[in-house]
């Protein structure tokens, strides 16, 4: 970009006796420096969200139920990893695709380990009195017999015996009928 030395405004830090030829590179340097400084401090919203993420993290550590505020905010902030504006210095050394793939593979390794741990848990639900009740209902009642009771028991009766159930109005929902 060519700068006309006669149109350059006088810079208050430079003496007026500098010739136009000497002022041009100095002013261009200051312009570049000020643009870089503006780029560094032009992300106030990211600073705000980073501080909010730290606050939500502290809340989640102190009160586990408040992790519901942390999780979506953390996902949004994690998406900034692929931002060339913020992490461009990383992408000069490593290609963006490779960086994103490395992060996803590290997360996948941890996820697979968690899934294998959960899948290794072998358990069986057994409630013998409830099973006997369901067998008795199937064997000793008519198809149109109506039952009332606690919500968990009535859910099992409805599912296992296909008999109609009556819910307390407090729990009743028209969409469940």
Map the helices and strands:
Layout: H1 20-40, H2 44-62, H3 67-78, H4 84-91, H5 96-119, H6 128-140, E1 147-148, H7 151-161, E2 165-166
Question: Describe it for me?
Answer:
With about 180 residues, the chain is mainly α. The model has no long low-confidence stretch (mean pLDDT about 80). It has helices at about 20-40, 45-60, 65-80, 85-90, 95-120, 130-140, 150-160; strands at about 145-150, 165. The termini are far apart. Strand 1 (about 145-150), helix 7 and strand 2 (about 165) form a beta-alpha-beta unit. The protein has a domain at about 130-170. About 60% of the residues lie in helices and about 0% in strands.
Residue fraction in strands: under 5%
Low-confidence spans:
none
Shape: elongated
Report the order of strands and helices.
HHHHHHEHE
| Helical amount | 55-70%
Number of strands: 2
Distance between the termini: 74 Å
Could you describe the largest sheet, including whether it forms a barrel?
2 strands, parallel
Individual helix count: 7
Placed side by side, the strands forming the largest sheet appear as 1-2
Output mean pLDDT: 78
Radius of gyration: 34 Å
Secondary-structure content class: mainly alpha
């Amino acid at each position: 970009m060519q700068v006309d030395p006669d149109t350059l405004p006088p810079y208050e830090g430079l003496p007026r006796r500098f010739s136009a030829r000497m002022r041009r590179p100095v002013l261009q340097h200051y312009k570049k420096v000020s643009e870089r400084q503006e780029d560094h401090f032009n992300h106030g919203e990211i600073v705000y969200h980073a501080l909010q993420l730290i606050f939500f993290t502290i809340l989640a550590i102190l009160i586990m139920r408040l992790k519901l505020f942390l999780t979506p905010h953390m996902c949004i902030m994690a998406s900034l990893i692929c931002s060339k504006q913020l992490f461009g210095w990383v992408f000069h050394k490593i290609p963006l695709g490779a960086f994103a793939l490395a992060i996803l593979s590290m997360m996948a390794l941890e996820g697979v380990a968690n899934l294998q741990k959960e899948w290794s848990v072998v358990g069986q639900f057994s409630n013998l009195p409830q099973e006997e009740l369901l067998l008795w209902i199937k064997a000793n009642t008519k198809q149109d017999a109506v039952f009332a009771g606690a919500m968990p028991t009535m859910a099992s009766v409805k599912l296992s015996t296909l008999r109609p159930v009556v819910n307390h109005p407090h729990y009743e929902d028209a969409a469940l009928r």
